[in-house]
Design goal:
oxidoreductase, 21 helices, Rossmann fold, oxidoreductase activity, lyase, binds 3R-hydroxydecanoyl-coenzyme A, fatty acid metabolism, alpha+beta, Helix Hairpins
Amino acid sequence: MSELRFDDRVVVVTGAGAGLGRAYAHLFASRGAKVVVNDLGGGRHGDGSSSKAADTVVEEIKAKGGVAVADYNSVVEGEKIIKTALDNFGRVDVLINNAGILRDKSFARISDQDWDLVHLVHLKGSFKTTQAAFPVFKKQNYGRIIMTASNSGIYGNFGQANYSAAKMGLIGLANTIAIEGGRNNIHCNVIIPTAASRLTEDILPPDVFAELKPELIAPVVAYLCHESCEDNGVYIDSAAGWAGKYEIVRSKGTTLRNSKKEGVSIENVKNAWGRVTDMSGSHKLSSIEEATGTLLTALEEMEGTGSGGDQEERGQSQEDDSDVYRYNSKDVILYALGVGTSLKNPDELKYLYENHEDFSALPTFFVLPAMQCLFTSDILENAVPGRTINLGQVLHGEQYIEVVDDLPTEGALVSKTSVVGVMDKGSGAAVVVNVDSYTKDGKLVLRNQSVIFCVGAGGFGGSRTVDYIQGIKKPNRTPEKTVSQQTGVDQAALYRLSGDLNPLHIDPSMALVSGFNTPILHGLATFGYSVRMVLGAYANNDSKLFKACKARFVKPVIPGQTLKVDMWRENNKILFETSVVETNTVVIGGAYIDLKSINMQPTANLLSSGLQSDAIFEFIIDQVKADPGKAKAVGGVFLYNITKDGKQAKQWTMDLKSAKVYEGAPKDIKPNTTLTIADEDFLLMAQGKLNPQVAFMKGKLKITGNIMLAQKLAPILKANAKL
Ligand SMILES: CCCCCCC[C@@H](O)CC(=O)SCCNC(=O)CCNC(=O)[C@H](O)C(C)(C)COP(=O)(O)OP(=O)(O)OC[C@H]1O[C@@H](n2cnc3c(N)ncnc32)[C@H](O)[C@@H]1OP(=O)(O)O
């Protein structure tokens, strides 16, 4: 690398009569700069003045062939120092604010004079010199400024309250000068040196003092002042031939209230304190605008989570609010991506786009409140008698989820956790935990039951089983439907962002500790994939039709493997089994999904009752055969929505996704076609004035096979559908 030079640059160094300042002056002069060696010649306490210190350094520089001039002014008269540069060299390019004094006293003994003098020299002095140089820098569109701060300010140091405060003041000063100067190529950076100098010689032990040579810091400062250094507004710590950067970071922080309508109580603050002070997600904010921006995001969050009762939640008996799960559309979408939802399937856009008219959460999203409870409590850790369970031995064994009431795509749920029992399975202990979740009004909306298999924690003398929700053996017949999808190699990396940060799923060494050659996929990711595939196959991807699901994790899945879900329908229940295609291994067994009984009343009643509630009519047709019976069987789900205002419904839709052959069907009907029927026609059908079969199929198709009704379908439809 070619030598970094300062030819034709004029450098002003304050306090350059000794120590760091002297080293800076020498280094810059040796690299071609013309140097103003400023030193009042005072003692370390700011007393006295003589020209000797500056003169000596100037002579030393000249003796080595360099160019330098002495200046004896106080930094408080900074303009005079800059004038020395301009008078002698016609310009100034670099200003190093290095001059300083100490007036050490324990805090209680600091006099006004001690305080003022230290601030005068460090803070006001740097202000005065910099303000004098600034217009020159601006005019020439170039300038480099160094402020000298101190670890004494950053960490505090006994007896240096005045000095600490002034040094931190310089960091604030540098921050703003960096912003104001940046657009004119004026950089202002901070050096935080620990050097042997007049200021430190009798503060530090002799052996440490010996290594704190100013010459080892001077190159760091010189580089910061070189035209090739692009940094502006950075704080560099340096000593003994070492350098590092400081940054001010802030915790991720948390909202203290759920909506803008609420106030903040002291109890809210106490409850949230863990999250306020949690530095695990801390980062540097690059500007005041970014800091303000985070407040806007927080306010948006508050808008999204309703009003009122959560205040009570927060103030309730909970010591912390780790059992309050807050979520919004971003969480819902991130989860959906984590379980393989993809735009490749246009029907799944509704899980990925918050402005979609049917934007919805996958039902399995709602295992996340339970997961949060398990991860933030010590329930598992202490569940097995006589053992302490650690994350390295925990495998997800089984999961049950039941959506008791419709859940929105954003909100807050309060959960209550209880241990059902702990089974001693010999090879491990299986802990059964219930997590029930409620709205802020105390309404039960969700039940989760998890079985957590703690490997190696068996043999504690407990019973082999407890009473808990069981899976169902798969039928002994060929699956009716099978759907496959390959997981991504980064699937666990993506899924973990929904909250399960267990290193087993991402960290190869932690996987080894748990007995796996490679990180394995989260059980709940496989679970989410499977349920989504079943919903696609039997419920037209409608989350609202989901009622409950139970599954057992039989074997692990490796991210990147292909999941195949075999399905069998028994009335409202879809039994399923998930395997890994590449290894032909069952990974989820004993599994089923209950589809909901739809809130349905006979059509005639609904119409005459003024259509007061949201209602969905549903019937699932097993087989649709084309006339004259030559077509292959196809599946279809017919839904009809009546909105709250009772006006109507959009349409009848017929999903012919899996249709292959439509002999006799209208030409324009192809696989993936949606057939629609006008509202008026539907109403005529509901009133019994139009045969749905005729209206629907235009006389070209016949519906045969079983029609399963969530509840009893309106007699009129039954009659006309010729079941
Ligand atoms: C909301 C909640 C969030 C919780 C998040 C938890 C943290 C997550 O980060 C962790 C994960 O996601 S891990 C990934 C998913 N899980 C897995 O991959 C585990 C797969 N299963 C296995 O490997 C074995 O079944 C194994 C190892 C579990 C058991 O195998 P074996 O030791 O060989 O047991 P086996 O001889 O087959 O049977 C002994 C007794 O144990 C019962 N059993 C077996 N598998 C079970 C399982 N998965 N769950 C519950 N019980 C299970 C058997 O029935 C048998 O009992 P019994 O003899 O009384 O019938």
